[in-house]
UniProtKB/TrEMBL annotation:
It comes from the Bacteria. The keyword Membrane applies. This is MATE family efflux transporter. One of its GO terms (cellular component) is plasma membrane. It is a multi-pass membrane protein. One of its GO terms (molecular function) is antiporter activity.
Amino acid sequence: MRINVIKLKTSRMIIGGNFMDNSTIRKELIRLTWPLFIQTILFMVLGMVDTLMLSRYSDNAVAAVSVSNQVLNFVQILFAVISVGTSILCAQYKGAQDEKNVGIVASVSLLFNAVMGIIFSVVLVVCSRSIFKLMNVPQEIMEYAVQYLVIVGAGSVFQALLNTTGAIVTSTGHTKVAMNISVTVNVINIVGNYILIFGAFGFPAMGVRGAAISTTLSKAIMSVFAIILLVVKINKNISIKALVPFPFEILKKILKIGIPSAGENLAYNISQLVITSIISTMGSLMLTARAYIGNITMFTIAFSSAIGQGTSILVGNKIGAKQKDDAYKACMYSLKVGIVTSLIVSSICAVFSGYLVGIFTTNKEILSVAAIVLACDIILEIGRVFNVIIIDSLKAAGDVKFPVFWGVISMWGISVVLSYVLGLKMNLALLGVWIACAADEWFRGILMLVRWKKGKWRKMKLI
């Protein structure tokens, strides 16, 4: 298979000079964000294809892999402790044109996450059955779940390395390379799934075990390739020598940024589980409606996420280059772009909700619920844009604790509580949940905008 990421052009990240011209911001934002958007969309679409393949094999197989992925997603949050901190530090050092420290940060993060990955590989292989017993996984899917988690869990070290290399590559401005790596992993996985799940080209049909082997092999191949690419093409300062003597101060900085961010992700995931349990008491129809609506809204979220990540890189570079006025302007310009984009995409989804949700179901009640909820989602998504872009910018500037603290408060105090009150007590069902989530997004969004405009992040220093 030909992998295009071998041909790597030198990053055109604008380190010096000012971003006072909006056209310059626009060009850099487009250059950084379009690969991130495509990466996100393809990841989502390929994930659907993955699930579709397993569904052709067995419904229990789909359920088993879904349960296993809940465990694996939790482990990924722990890997994010390092990758988030790495991303922000690399962006700032890149802006300061300090390639040596970019290499040191990358070397430390690769070593740390590799060790973490090995530890979790052992834990998941040894404890998989015990973990599922604690989760009260039904016996009919237990064996499938254990098969999948043991094999994919054994390759946790490869996922840890992919997370880290992705953070380094993206934060140094090579978003197209990051896209190619991510897409290649997923394409190899899909092809491998087809061959090993169903037994194509003379291979035995292995079902769930085949899906697990395919997933692990694709990550193993690309993690090795990504590390070689990093060392040879992107930053030749990445080496074992950079770890002698061990740079504990760099590790401390990575953890200082990463631990609060990972805590926020964990709080969000747990709050979503609670909200899901609230929706489940409304009946299976509402759960199904939420799933279908989620498939539609992911396109709006993908735009917001890509713009947020691109802005984070721009802001981090400008902070590193001591150009804080330009960092401020880049964030505010991106916010305007994000609001307009989100408004257009979410409005299209609402107007054509019948056609879009109709792809998945013909149930009139679900279609009716979806039409109302997707109309409400327009308001929610605009609030989300504020959060995604400004929070990413605050973190890139080193202001990590404020958005994390208020994020946890708002997720639980507004989103979870109001979902229960509006959804169940006031009988607004799924619409009530969406209103609650919109209130959470807008509360945090306004709070973060005020924080950004006050400029306390200007006094913070990471490097």
